[in-house]
Amino acid sequence: MRDSRRPAPCNSRNPPGPHYMSDASSPATATAPDMLELAALLCSRVCHDLISPVGAIVNGLEVLDDDPKPEDREFALDLIRKSAKTASARLQFCRLAFGAAGSSGAQIDLGDAQTMARGHIEDGKCTITWNLPRLLLPKNRVKLLLNMLVVAQHTIPRGGTLTIDPVGEGETMSFRITATGHNARLPQNIAELLSGERGPAADAHAIQPYYTRLLAQACGLTVTLAPEGAAIIVTAS
């Protein structure tokens, strides 16, 4: 059966987004997820981040239900404690990075953003060097920063350091994140999704860098991802 889909027109309600493929060999015109699809994909992304720690809590409770030996009981309780802490940190981060985070025009304390970022990202393999001053910034700029951190984290899959430096100052401050670590690399298609060039279809895995680009556009900025020596640099400017 012939594919009846047609490229959606680009307008203010349907901004340019990731390029879809009509089949395995021929590219189609770029289309963007509509508002309902964008919301669904972001929810899928959040659920993906929470499945692992919540599942570990369930496993720990099942061990306790079996009336285990004292050493098994202590292991289960420790698993529940650690997993609950991880789930809480991820929820708080997602609430700030993807949620409404206050009313329109609200500002967010960069100190709070630092706390959320450390709780979500620092896991024994990855550390953060935070060189930003503590001040209030428009919420979309703070959301942009947190999403840039997620992008940067993906460039050091074996762990390393994320160094965040300011670009400019005051309410118009933007950010530069330097990712260093063993085998730092550019994840496939992420740079294209950030720039708006040809990339994969918007799915639950690709939606986060796509959303990062939307946040940058809302702030009047552009996000770039590029190697610099042995490091990978994520910049909003």
From TrEMBL:
Domain of life: Bacteria
Gene3D superfamilies in alphabetical order: 1.10.287.130, Histidine kinase-like ATPase, C-terminal domain
Residue segments, region Disordered: 1-28
Domain Histidine phosphotransferase ChpT C-terminal intervals: 111-230
UniProt xrefs under NCBIfam families: HisPtaseChptBrucRhz
Entry protein name: Blr2191 protein
